[in-house]
Amino acid sequence: MLEGKGILITGAGSGIGEAAAALFAGYGARLVLADINGDAVSRVAEAIVAKGGEAYALVVDTGVPAQIEKMVTDAAAKLGRIDCAFNNVGIAHEMAEVAALPLATWQHTIDITVTGTFLSMQAELKHMVEQGGGVIVNTASNAGTHGTPMLAAYAAAKAGVISVTKTVAVEYAARGIRANAVCPGVINTPPIKALADAGVNFADIINAPMGRVGTAAEVAELAAWLCSSRSSYVTGQAISIDGGTNAMP
Fold this sequence. Notes:
By secondary structure, this protein is α/β, with parallel strands linked by helices. It has 8 helices and 7 strands; from the N terminus they run βαβαβαβαβαβαααβ.
């Protein structure tokens, strides 16, 4: 499905990014993997190479604009072209009502999740326009589609990711570039574990008709499809992957 495609994945050291790296490699993609955790992303890349795949690890802080620009330039140099970028960055934060949410928490969440995704797309788009096309997939969240009590900054950041994704899709469609967002519900990943550790009782709030949390591999499958030519007429979409939660009244 992704044979020979050059793909950049951020947040590739754990969770959805790690699952996407393994899955994309299995589908034949050539990968540049970026993460702020050098040991983690190197481990993921080495596991792919050990199985005969092609993967390069980069240590990148997507909160630093200069590092984002260098990441994309380095990815293009290693892969020859960036056929697809899976921008999978974002952070959770401590739970608090809006009136009690610290400004520093709000700003840090927005900076990493929205601004980091925006800057990544800016750099990626320059390469994709030059090469005549490409695909961008961004990790958003169901939290960005409706009110999410106690997680205002996270929800606002993910809503921002959805909005800028749709804007890119409209602006760049005529230049052969597609952009979509995946919107996971509750997925068994490190950020969800962090929220559980902070006191979120997911047993009380999960109302997915399928009756379970999702897996990172399931989200990775959706991202792989969006990166592939099989979704060639799909752009500007924010697709929920949530066991049916968003379909509930």
